[in-house]
Specification:
With 316 residues, this protein is α/β, with parallel strands linked by helices. It has 3 domains: 6-73, Orthogonal Bundle (Arc Repressor Mutant, subunit A); 92-163 and 269-303, D-Maltodextrin-Binding Protein, domain 2 (3-Layer(aba) Sandwich); 165-267, D-Maltodextrin-Binding Protein, domain 2, CATH 3.40.190.10. 43% of the residues lie in helices and 21% in strands.
Amino acid sequence: MYHASFRQLQSLVLVARHESVSRAAEALHVTQPAVSLQLRTLEEITGTALTRKVGRTIQLTAAGEVMAEFSERILRLWEQAGDELAALNGVTSGTLRIGAVTTAEHLLPPLLVPFTLERPDVRLKLQVGNRVEIVNMLARQEIDLAIMGTPPREFGTNAARFARHPMGFVASADHPLMKKKRITLADVSSANLLVRERGSGTRTAVEKLFKDGGHPLDFGSEVSSNEAIKRMVSAGLGLGFLSVHACALEFETGLLKLLPMAGNPVEAHWHVMHLAGVPIPKVAAAFQDFVIDQGQDLVQRELEGFYKPGGARRRG
């Protein structure tokens, strides 16, 4: 164990994550035989088998799971040590490991760009996925910070609001409901409403709207992609319920518009969070403070021209 190298530990961690030697090799930018050699050497050092082949995938043995967990801790501590040393010299450096739900990817650029431009020594590792994927990454400590609408209930987090999250019913500019003076949820429901999958932030919000209004949850279609919903709605195949952030470009070009109905859009909040009781690297703490202090203003600039907080629309 005293002769194990960081490369060997990293190889094991990546094979465990991808369940594949070839994909681990791609992530490390080395050949597949090189990763296999690192694993065999680590097994010789530990004196036990760490992986086994199951079908076309590579899975960890019980010993491999223990070793992979400690390997992740060791690699993370080594990275944090470098960050701490840099901080002593007044430099904010290190890798910002952050995860965001797919809807939030549209608001990340105005946050990440100014932060990283002011800190050229910061590297970025951004993971985007659905809510379940991001929650699991946070639980496994594959990311230090997560950005999503509602903090997970599965485990404790230190979460803070940093920006408003408007969500609303959208339609193509020539949809018949755009000309109607008074639009109800019944009108929306009968117009083939396209929504995201269960568990997503927008799906939870639209379900609450229908329940509070006493309407059955009878949606037209469930689609697991914001882009697919936007394309179908702009083509006139129904209405959508989406984050305003996800539709900024379509609003700007006129492909989509917020449906002119009372209470549309509704507002929730974006949260930035990390695992409770787990210290986070200085670079992650710096980004968290930055987002809490400046997030709302930076995000709002991206929406100027067609939306302002409070639900009022400025254009179209």
